Amino acid sequence: MEKQDCERKACWRLMEKLKKAFPRLPICLCGDSLYACEGFFERCKEKNWKYILRYKEGSIPTIGMEYRELKGIEQNYQERKRETGKEWYDYVREIDYKGYKVNVAEYGEYQEQICKKRRRMPRRKTVSCG
User: Fold this and answer.
1) pTM for the whole thing?
2) Distance between CA 48 and CA 27 in Å, rounded?
3) Angle at 92 between CA 90 and CA 95, to 5 degrees
4) Domain count of the fold of the chain
């Protein structure tokens, strides 16, 4: 039995095949925090591709630290009330990571659930993207 290749290396090969087959197609890749690395950013830049990655706390600690510092300064926080709670987002643009500009956006929502006794219970859900 032959050892399987790692997911990231398989992605690099697929990116080359896509670029060769569709040289002028504008592409936006979507992936998880596994791809948040200098190699991925470089390959996308070479091909003039865009990307949206899920940021996982700890995957690139410098980006997370700078985001937390800048989000209070830039004050991009927005909140909207909904019928059963509220939703919010925050973002910081152009965080530098080894010469690459990274945008970080964070989204969250608070929902109230009505229990059998007609009490409202708050529930929180947060999603971060990088």
Assistant:
1) 0.73
2) 8
3) 155
4) 2
Q: Is the Cα dihedral 57, 8, 23, 44 positive or negative?
A: positive
Question: Left if phi > 0, otherwise alpha if psi is -120 to 50, otherwise beta: which for 39?
Answer: alpha
What pLDDT is attached to residue 15? 97
78 shares a domain with 20:
no
Tell me: the pLDDT tens digits for 15-49? Answer: 999 999 999 999 999 999 999 999 999 999 999 99
Same domain, 46 and 63: no
| Domain co-membership, 37 together with 63 | no
Angle between helix 7-21 and helix 38-47 axes, rounded to 10 deg: 0
Mean pLDDT, rounded, for 120-129:
57
Can you tell me the distance from the alpha carbon of 124 to that of 108, in angstroms, rounded to the nearest whole number? 7
